[in-house]
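Milestone M4 deliverable, item 7.
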Amino acid sequence: MFRAIAAFLESFAVACFALTTLAVAVAERQAPSPAPGLATLDALMPGAGGASIPQVPMGLVAQPVNGALWSLLWLAIASGFAHVAVRLCRRFRGPPRIMVTVGLLAAALAPWIVYRSQVIGLSIGVLGILALVQGLFDDTAAEGDEDWGLVPLGVLTAWVLLSILGATGVTLQGWLGLDPQRAALLMLLGVSLAGARIQLSLGRNIAFSLTLIWAMIGIAAAALGGSMTVATACVLGISSLAVVIVRVTT
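Output delivered:
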């Protein structure tokens, strides 16, 4: 009975996450009014003065602008269902994975709350990140850091981290009057620092860092022509994560 309830809750959370992710990705955007020399960056950080997304202002990762980021979005959705499939194959053994379910539900709810209240929406999003990270730590401790079954959850956690930090960058752009370049740089700094710290704790389960690197490649491609500074920051972030990957795998 308990396993049936756990299976239903995790499946429901993944379905909510998938539906919200797709809805956010295809949400209608208003036509941009870019500042001189920042055309690409207005798409990168669609806040004040740039492309506005009235319903769900979540940023570049949640609303992709190129093939690399679109493929990452679809990978995140597929990873959600793959995670449930792995858990079903293992008959939901071990202690309950409540944190993963909470994290996915929070990630599904946050984009809609952000439109009404940025503080509450981002707080829920941060709760989702913390819950998913804790769930990933718990699964790693239970299954071992070389277990391939942890790959989907690593991808999911990284994507939610990217999405919420992207929304935070958009919010800071509006609150502090930052230009798109500075907002993007703050977002990338947060991704790099958080990614390195989390990966060091995950050990050989490098799906998390590889997802962040994939996203930074897509962001760098979007920034080319608008800001070499942002593109360079992506390269530096990729380099730092690569060093962490080498450290934990050797």
